[in-house]
Every structure is written in structure tokens, then in C-alpha cells.
TrEMBL record:
TM ranges: none
Entries under InterPro entries matching the protein: 6-PGluconate_DH-like_C_sf, 6PGD_dom2, 6PGDH_NADP-bd, HIBADH-like_NADP-bd, HIBADH-related, NAD(P)-bd_dom_sf
Domain 6-phosphogluconate dehydrogenase NADP-binding span(s) in chain numbering: 3-157
Record keywords, A-Z: NAD, Oxidoreductase
Family, similarity comment: Belongs to the HIBADH-related family.
Residues annotated as domain 3-hydroxyisobutyrate dehydrogenase-like NAD-binding: 160-280
The name this protein goes by in its record: 3-hydroxyisobutyrate dehydrogenase-like beta-hydroxyacid dehydrogenase
């Protein structure tokens, strides 16, 4: 049994916390909105990060934006108050440069960047893909814990490379989500039976997680967030910024980002990413 601090109890975080509790670990949790901790089955709930992290062997962070990561590590004091020798794991999809910055300021700790993919379903079923950057020895220490949260745990390389891997993931997801949406629009234009068409194409060359998992949600008008549009646009902004440092422009990424950015600007930021269909049906 380990004492584990968890900072950020959002859509995915709560399910991940539950898996760690079920495995017998003692969870200490913090969230800026205290009410979001009410249904978490642990007595260790805090209104300050200092009190949450000070006795824990591992500190997980899973917050919204890079600015939030910066705040909890540098302003709210994880780096000041965590127990010496603790392992700090940021699972937020964030900036590779920020992951490197945290590592450089963490002489008293071991640090990993470990963003995930799989959304709310993957978090609930412990089937997340976890992409880890940092020292290999630290990854090896954490592998059993990661395996409680996901079934596809990969060591990518040094600090920041977990985040770069997640950018590759988000670029691929952007294209797949747009392709799924356009296929549904085509089905509708020709009055095809969508369930039949999805069955026909869902196991062939067109097969994708988006087509098999998100298209049925769209057909049921279920646009609730497994992953927020506002967070996906943030991820794509990071990906665009990182690739543009190399002098390369990715046209598909630019196109899908522009569609999602328009949706966010029009009030759809708290919808799930499958709400891209709203762009086509505006």
C-alpha cells in the first residue's frame, strides 16, 4: 500500500482514483472545486495542495491546461511541499517544454510526464494508453501503478517525450474524428441506414476507434464529454506550436483545429469531441 496524492478530479481523474483505491492504495485528493471530491471514497480530501502532498510517496497531477500545471507545481507548491524523494507524475496533456522545466526544477524528486489517451471510457475500464517520458528507472518503479490505470503503457523516452507522443495521438485523433463526422454526413445525405453502414465498414479498412465508439454516440445525440472540446483545442494548439517550431505545417491538423476552434468560440467548449458533427450541421 502506498500513499498517493491526486491533484485534479475531473471526468477521467475520478475513475482513475477509484482503480487505485480498489487496489488498496491510500488516496489523498485535492481539487480546486471542493464539491467535485464529494463522491470520492477516501477520507483524505484537502483544501490545500500543501496538506495533500506532504506525506505522499507519489503525486499525480491531472488538470486542465499548461497554465494549471504551472500553477500547481510552481505557485501552489508541489515542488515546495512534496515529500523528498517522491515521484511526481503529470498526466495532463501539456507542453513538452513545461515537462522539461518541471524536471529541471525537481532535484529532490523523480519526475515523469505521462499523458493518457482513451477518454472517459478508457479511464472507467482501466484501458487507457499511457505515454511516459522521464528516466527509465523511474518508469520501471511506476509500471505496476500505471498498469492499474491502463492496458497499454509505453516508455517513450526522456522528459517531454511523453507529451510529444501525445501530440502524435491527438493529431491522429483529429483526423479520425473529422473522417467519422464526414462519413456520417454522407450517410445522412443519401438517407442510408447508419447502423447498417457502420456495421459494414466498421471492421474493414475504415475501422477506427472513433468510428466504432463515437459514431454511435453521435447517432444517439449523445454529445456529453468523454473528452472536452475545450481541452482538445488546447491539445491541438500545442501540437501546432510544436510542429511549427520545425518549419512544418500540417494541413489536416490546421483544418480540424479551425473547425473545433469555431465550435468552442460558439459555446460548444464543454461538449464532447464527437460534437464536431455540429460544425457540419450548422
Amino acid at each position: 500500500m502506498m500513499k498517493i496524492a491526486w491533484i485534479g478530479t475531473g471526468v477521467m481523474g475520478k475513475a482513475m482514483i477509484a482503480h487505485l483505491i480498489d487496489a488498496g492504495h491510500e488516496l489523498h485528493v485535492y481539487n480546486r472545486t471542493v464539491a467535485k471530491m464529494d463522491d470520492i471514497p477516501t477520507p483524505y480530501k484537502y483544501t490545500s495542495i500543501k496538506d495533500c502532498v506532504k506525506e505522499c510517496d507519489i503525486v499525480f497531477t491531472m488538470v486542465g491546461y499548461p497554465k494549471d500545471v504551472e500553477e500547481v507545481y510552481f505557485n501552489d507548491g508541489i515542488l515546495d511541499y512534496a515529500k523528498k524523494g517522491a515521484i511526481l507524475v503529470d498526466m495532463t496533456t501539456s507542453s513538452p517544454d513545461l515537462a522539461i522545466k518541471i524536471a529541471k526544477h525537481s532535484n529532490d524528486f523523480e519526475v515523469l510526464d505521462a499523458p493518457v489517451s482513451g477518454g472517459d471510457t478508457g479511464a472507467k475500464n482501466a484501458t487507457l494508453s499511457i505515454m511516459v517520458g522521464g528516466n527509465k528507472d523511474t518508469f520501471d518503479k511506476m509500471n505496476d501503478i500505471f498498469s492499474l490505470l491502463g492496458n497499454n503503457v509505453n516508455y517513450i523516452g526522456s522528459h517531454g517525450l511523453g507529451q510529444h507522443c501525445k501530440m502524435c495521438n491527438q493529431i491522429a485523433v483529429a483526423g479520425a474524428t473529422a473522417a467519422m463526422s464526414e462519413a456520417l454526413v454522407y450517410m445522412d445525405a443519401y438517407d442510408l441506414d447508419a447502423d447498417t453502414v457502420l456495421k459494414a465498414i466498421g471492421s474493414g479498412a475504415a475501422q477506427s476507434w472513433q468510428l466504432n465508439n463515437m459514431a454511435p454516440r453521435v447517432l444517439n445525440n449523445d454529445l456529453d464529454p468523454g473528452f472536452f472540446i475545450k481541452h482538445f483545442t488546447k491539445d491541438m494548439r500545442i501540437a501546432k506550436s510544436e510542429i511549427e517550431k520545425t518549419g512544418v505545417h500540417l494541413k489536416m491538423l490546421d483544418s480540424v483545429y479551425n473547425m473545433y476552434d469555431e465550435l468552442e468560440q460558439n459555446g460548444f467548449g464543454d461538449y464532447g469531441t464527437q460534437a464536431l458533427i455540429k460544425y457540419y450541421k450548422k
